[in-house]
Design a protein that fits this description.
The chain is an alpha+beta fold and 512 residues long. It is 35% helix and 22% strand. It has 14 helices and 19 strands. It is globular and about 80 Å long.
């Protein structure tokens, strides 16, 4: 007997078989879209706030006056061997004058390191609690009013609620904010439970080889181990991440590595009237072009950048929320979007920047030598050696010599889960001062003094609550660097609250 299935029924069964996985996938995606939330909040915190973070009018005036004076001192680092040492000396005098309690309190030990850097040891009452450390740097990069500044770069001019000047966001807002916070707490009779350190480097902009490095050497010689370190780095971003509901505070849990590579070509000299098929400049230009056209691989998801978007997923509107909640499915879509813009491309790969190209001495002479320098900022999942191998394979020309001038691997990724003391203390403090923000881990694409502290702790975080709106990132090391007066006041209150929050003995358990 034959069993016959009508063609129409057979077609419906086949269609169901095909559509069922699609339907299941759709339901999973939609379900995760409206339930996905990896941004864990902790339970009831121990209250250690003795002095509420608030300022009266007189305190605000003093705060602003001290900050303006700090900006007016041109503590410029031009190179590793050239700094404005007279300005650094004046800055030392400013600190001693502006913060008398810090420099006279029996709770605080001050030491000068390498003439211009500072180490403060603040003693707590419970010595069994592991100390932490706050970092900032005094020096700034050069600035020239002729580049188009709306106010002289060392004038600290006040305009439309902002203070303009070099160092307002890199990094004197932290230097002064930290010490103002400690000064205010000491004036009010505060004694910390947990000891902590403050390290102010004077040469961060030229690698910190005398300031931060020597501070670390001194602490290491004393057997100091740190619970965590907080340095400059990422910020509060408002209106910068498309589709996000509200501002986001990104805490840098790592920073990219760096490599400077020198490319050289040597050929026979000659006269321009009888040129060969390829000159040294042409050979090198072709090599550089191959590096620029063949970018380093997209490594989205192999570093902390994936967690950045997953922990923000619940704050996005549709359809962004659907993508961020389902990166197991849409990661290639998101990474493709991110690599389309220079500022977000830096999050997903090792970046390639040709910064110097030198060759030739005379118009009618074929140059025998050509050189170029390429700067790579290395993704968390790569190493300097891996980058060099990719450079050589991309150039693929034995006539081009590839030489590593200097470099270091990316910093280890610090923990950022719900049981990590440093990350959670910073997160809580940021939300105490700015309740409207969402906090998420991130990758710092620049380098900081904190990279020298890996021998003292495995938990290094890079964050200052400077408020960035669209266009503000160009002010960093650029023209018209500025900070809102209200934002600077909030930064001081952030550090004031952070110090008190650090006195908790243990973290609360996460919400279930």
């Amino acid at each position: 007997m034959k069993i016959r299935i009508p063609k129409k029924r057979f077609f419906l069964i086949l269609l169901a078989i095909v559509l069922l996985p699609v339907l299941i996938l759709f339901l999973v995606v939609i379900g995760r879209t409206f339930t996905f939330n990896l941004n864990t909040e902790l339970g009831q915190w121990e209250n250690t706030t003795i002095i509420y973070p608030v300022l009266n009018a007189e305190q605000k005036d003093r705060l602003l006056a001290n900050f303006k004076e700090a900006i007016q001192l041109p503590t410029v680092s031009f190179s590793e061997t050239q700094q404005n040492t007279s300005a650094l000396h004046e800055f030392d005098l400013l600190l001693r004058r502006a913060f008398p309690k810090v420099f006279s309190s029996s709770l605080v030990k001050h030491e000068t390191i390498s003439t211009y850097s500072h180490l403060f040891t603040v003693s707590g009452t419970e010595l069994d609690l592991m100390p932490y450390m706050l970092l900032a740097h005094i020096d700034v990069v050069p600035a020239n009013e002729a580049d188009g500044w709306d106010a002289p770069p060392f004038s600290a001019k006040e305009m439309n609620g902002f203070i303009y000047g070099r160092g307002t966001i890199d990094n004197k807002q932290s230097v002064m904010g930290i010490l103002e916070a400690l000064e205010h707490l000491l004036e009010r009779g505060y004694t910390p439970r947990r000891s902590f350190y403050i390290g102010l480097g004077h040469d961060e902009e030229v690698h910190g080889l005398h300031g931060a490095v020597n501070i670390v050497k001194l602490l290491k010689s004393r057997g100091v181990k740190l619970l965590y370190v907080l340095d400059e780095g990422l910020t509060i971003m408002d209106g910068i991440i498309d589709g996000l509901d509200g501002p986001a505070a990104l805490i840098g849990v790592s920073e990219k590595g760096q490599a400077t590579v020198k490319l050289t070509v040597n050929t026979a000299p000659g006269h321009s009237s009888m040129p060969p098929r390829e000159t040294s400049i042409g050979i090198l230009a072709s090599a550089v072009r191959r590096l620029e056209q063949n970018r380093m691989p997209n490594l989205f998801g192999r570093g902390p950048e994936r967690a950045t978007f997953e922990q923000l997923a619940h704050k996005f509107g549709f359809p962004h929320r659907m993508v961020m909640s389902n990166l197991w499915l849409f990661s290639s879509l998101l990474s493709g979007i991110l690599e389309g813009q220079p500022d977000t491309n830096a999050f997903v790969r090792t970046t390639t920047a040709v910064t110097m190209f030198n060759s030739g001495v005379k118009i009618n002479v074929l140059p025998p030598y050509a050189e170029a320098f390429v700067n790579f900022r290395i993704h968390s999942s790569q190493t300097v050696d891996e980058v060099l191998k990719l450079v050589e394979s991309t150039i693929s020309d034995k006539r081009v010599k590839v030489e590593l001038i200097e470099g270091f691997d990316p910093l280890p990724i610090s923990y950022y889960n719900e049981y990590t003391f440093g990350y959670q203390i910073i997160k809580k403090t940021a939300k105490d001062i700015f309740p409207q923000i969402t906090v998420t881990p991130g990758i710092c694409i620049g380098n900081t003094d904190s990279r020298h502290y890996t021998e003292l702790t495995s938990n290094i975080y890079r964050f200052v609550p400077s408020w960035y709106k669209p266009g503000d990132s160009a002010r960093f090391h650029g023209v018209n660097e500025r900070i809102a007066i209200q934002n600077y006041e909030d930064i001081m209150l952030f550090f004031m609250q952070l110090i008190q929050n650090g006195d908790v003995r243990n973290l609360p358990l996460p919400h279930t």
